[in-house]
Amino acid sequence: MKPTHISGKLWVLRDPHGQLYDDVDTDMIFHNRYLHITDPAEMGRYALDNLRGWEDFAQRVRPGDIVMAGRNFGAGSSRQQAVDCFLSLGVGALVAESFGAIYKRNAINSGLAVVTFPSLSRHAETFRNGDVLSIDLGSGELQLNGVRTYRAQPFSRVQMAIYQAGDLFAYGELVAQA
Amino acid sequence: MGQTIIQKIFAAHSDGSVPVEPGNVIWLGLDARTARDFAGPNVVRNYRRHYGDAPVADRTKTFFTFDLVVPPSNIPYAINQQICRTWAGEQGITVYDVNAGIGSHVALEEGLAYPGSTFVGTDSHLNIMGAVGAFGQGMGDKDITFAFRTGKTWIEVPETMRVVVRGQMPANCTARDLTLAVLRRLGSRGALGRAIEFYGEAVEALGLAGRITLASQVTEMGGIIGFVPPSAEVLAWTQARVRRRQPQAEVRGVYADPDAAYCETVTLDVSGLEPLIACPPSPANVKPVREVAGRRVDSVFIGSCTNGRFEDFAAVAEVVRGKHVAPHVMATVVPATRRVYAQMLKAGVLETLFEAGFIISNPGCGGCASGHLGMTGEGQVNISTSNRNFPGKQGPGETYLASPVTAAWCALAGEIYGGER
Ligand code: SF4
């Protein structure tokens, strides 16, 4: 069983004015000029390189780090690469106020922890790069630097099942055997 | 309690073990599953890795559609398309190849999607199928790999909202202006994670091309799907196409029960509408054309799955007949499909556009992705009838989104201009 409690160092996606980025579109996460790439190992280096202020994200992020953004993260296209580029960098989780619907599916299917945090904008000022965020995927409880706690949405049943299995394919095998 | 359209379609495509209520996760049977030249090779790669040589669940319901970089203009895409072709050959899967046009439109024209059916693929605008009252959803390559192998997908039943568009549109406005008005009202997240049902006399008055325009922009409203309940005309059109494959088929529309439950109803009136334009940096940044009129325009792109139908180009021809595109403007026209192209050819529309100075391309997505043509350089201003204008998508220039008619006026004037209508 994978741990349902994860923790990591935060990258808070803010625009040049310091506002939490909303509506980050899949072309900002993984630009369409790289869409010919099919090898997940090669995808990481292009992550966020079309998002102003975050062009060098791939060089700065470390495995296990957690990425935070505002509303409708991953709007736009259905490209799986916009999820897999984070997996390829070892990103531990994505936390956002809300996600694009297709993006969320893709992340769930890849076994990447995506956590919806509906009240994020009310606390947006509190979160800073380098803070340590702990997430209880089962209950949705977030803990910032080991002190303050917040409530995000817990994983849904199917999300937890796919996450535990590893990805959609492994989950599919389990379902077929059952 | 009655059911919404999506509940009825889902109920007819699932085993009934889980009630089709918002928030529940069901296994949904898929009438068609597709992949295109973007993500198609990723699907092949996943498939080989996880399922080896096992056959797809049903090759008569599995398709490739190449539409983004067609014919391939660079080597990586040529290689990727050939990966798909070779594998499709091994599996016995039909490929709608580089000459066919935009996959979603080809699917409608071929009768692969029809009222009440379910359709998935690696194209984020498959909610276009809502234009005929079908369920369509774009998905990533993992989902589609799984769908190829099993014929089904897990899905959470979304809530449904109603959008009622009242009034009669003024003659100088088009379906795209109506769509932009809805987008302005809902914003980029107004339908986030939801299904929409469109009602009202302005919606009922739309022909199929206009319904496609409206349905295609539900993605930009954050929605999963937007259904336009099929009219008699749409039923007849789809039935004729389905019968090319199954001569006896009866196409039936799926409509909501009168007591179905909606999470929200949004009403707007378009009787005082004026031509609209979505300004950078997002499709929901909608303004009246007159507010940004006068800006110099460098390029114009007319086409895409949102506005690439015959009706769109015929309207452009009306505007530009006997006139000429401004000398400094690069104006391109890309029909959605080969059938649309043929119709333009026979009706004389191609000739009118050619005489007016347009560059006419083969069918496909054209300048919508960074696939083919219509990219922008630093400082360029591009007027496009496609569906997204996020920064950097079509290059470093700025993209404005408008109707084909507005785009035509801009091409003639060489600046943003709402036209003498
Ligand atoms: S025209 Fe654009 S939005 Fe439509 S299917 Fe092609 S790339 Fe996607």
How does this model look, in words?
- The complex is a heterodimer of chains A (178) and B (421).
- With 178 residues, chain A is α/β, with parallel strands linked by helices.
- Chain A has helices at 26-29, 40-43, 57-60, 81-88, 101-110, 120-123, 157-165, 168-177; strands at residues 5-12, 66-69, 93-96, 113-116, 132-136, 141-144, 148-151.
- Chain A has one domain (5-177): Aconitase, domain 4 (Alpha-Beta Barrel).
- Chain A is built from eight helices and seven strands.
- The longest helix of chain A has 10 residues, at 101-110.
- With 421 residues, chain B is α/β, with parallel strands linked by helices.
- Among the domains of chain B are: 5-157, Aconitase, domain 3; 276-413, Aconitase, domain 3 (2-Layer Sandwich), CATH 3.30.499.10.
- In chain B, the strands form four sheets. A seven-stranded mixed sheet of chain B has the order 13-12-18-17-14-15-16, sandwiched between helices. A five-stranded parallel sheet of chain B has the order 4-3-2-5-6, with helices on one face.
- Chain B is globular.
- The mean pLDDT of chain B is 95.
- Classes of the chains: A alpha/beta (178), B alpha/beta (421).
- Chains A and B meet through helix 5 and helix 8 of A and helix 2, helix 3 and helix 5 of B.
- The complex binds iron/sulfur cluster.
- The site of iron/sulfur cluster has 12 residues of chain B, from loops.
Please give a quick description of this structure.
The complex is a heterodimer of chains A (178) and B (421). In chain A, 30% of the residues lie in helices and 19% in strands. With 178 residues, chain A is α/β, with parallel strands linked by helices.
